[in-house]
Amino acid sequence: MKPFDYARADTVEAAVAGGGRFIAGGTNLLDLMKLQVETPEKLVDISRLDLNRIEERDDGGLTIGALVPNSDLAADPRVIERYEVLSRALLAGASGQLRNKATTGGNLLQRTRCYYFYDTAAACNKREPGSGCDAIGGFNRIHAILGTSEQCIATHPGDMPVAMRALDATIVTQKADGDKRRVPIGDFYRLPGDTPQIENVLEPGELITHVELPAPVANARHLYRKVRDRASYAFALVSVAGVVAVEDGRIAHAALAFGGLAHLPWRNPAVEQALVGQQPGTAAFEAAADALVEGARGFGHNNFKIPLVRRTLIASLRDLTGEASA
C-alpha cells in the first residue's frame, strides 16, 4: 500500500471541503488500495458523521443515512415490513462481519469484481483508460451480457443497489461547493461506453449523505433471488429484485431489477410493460423474459447467463404472483 494522508471529518461540510477519497467501513476501498488498484493520496474518514439513522418520511417512506451499516438496515423492522426485497438483498450479500462494517453509501459505490480489474498486470480500461480489456476474449464467466461496450464488459457487484433500483430509491448528495442534489437511482449509474472508469454521476468531492425510499407499493409481494456459485459470500451470477402487485387477477404493478448482467443495476421498462395489465401465467412471463434478453450478448464463457436469467426471472415471477404451477 502506498503512503497517503489521513484526515477525520467531524461535519459533512468539512468532509466535502477537505479533498481526497472518503472512507467509512472501507470494506472495498482498502482491498483496492492494498492491491494498488487505487492509490489515493488522501483519505477523509467520514465514519463519525451523523449519518447513521433511519428516519420516517412524511410520504410513508424512509430516509436512510449513508453510514447506516448493512446489518442494521437489513434488521430494521420497518425495512423488513415495508421493503422486504431490500432486507433480503442485504442478507444475501457478503458475510455477517462485512455487513457490520459496510455502509449504505459505500455499498452503492462498490466497484466491480472483474478479475482483470483487480490484476494490475492485466489490461483494464476501467483501471487504466486506453489500456484495453482483457476480459473480452479472456475468461469472462462472471461478466456482463447487457449494456456492454468494446471498452468494458464488467458487472456491478452489488445486491443492495439492485433492490434499491426496484424500489425507485433517490440518492441525496452534498457537493464540494455546499450545494445538495437528489439523484434518482436510475440516473445515478453510467454504462461503460467509451469511459468505463466513470461509473456514476458523482462529481469530485461530492458525498452521498442519504438514500430516500418512497412509500411502499400497497399489497405487493417482494422477492430477491440470487443465483451464485455457492450459498454464502459469493457475488451474483444473476439476481432478480422484484416488487409485484396483482389486483383482480391481473398484474397491476411490476418493478424488476437485475444484478450480475450489466455495468449497473439493470432495469428495462419493456420487461415491466410486458407484465402490467396481463394475467399471471406462462405467456406473460415468457414475454417479459424475451424483453429482458433482447440484445443480450455473451462473450464465450458467460453465454450461459442468457438462458439462466430467463429461467430465473420466470421462476421469480411465479413466486411473486402466486402462480407457482403456471
From TrEMBL:
The keyword GTP-binding does not apply. PANTHER family: ALDEHYDE OXIDOREDUCTASE FAD-BINDING SUBUNIT PAOB, XANTHINE DEHYDROGENASE SUBUNIT C-RELATED. InterPro entries: CO_DH_flav_C, CO_DH_flav_C_dom_sf, Diverse_Substr_Oxidored, FAD-bd_PCMH, FAD-bd_PCMH-like_sf, FAD-bd_PCMH_sub1, FAD-bd_PCMH_sub2, Mopterin_DH_FAD-bd. Gene3D superfamilies: 3.30.465.10, CO dehydrogenase flavoprotein, C-terminal domain, Uridine Diphospho-n-acetylenolpyruvylglucosamine Reductase, domain 2. This is Xanthine dehydrogenase family protein subunit M. Coiled coil: none annotated. Residues 1-218 form the FAD-binding PCMH-type domain. Pfam families: CO_deh_flav_C, FAD_binding_5. PROSITE patterns: FAD_PCMH. The keyword Flavoprotein applies. Keywords: FAD, Flavoprotein.
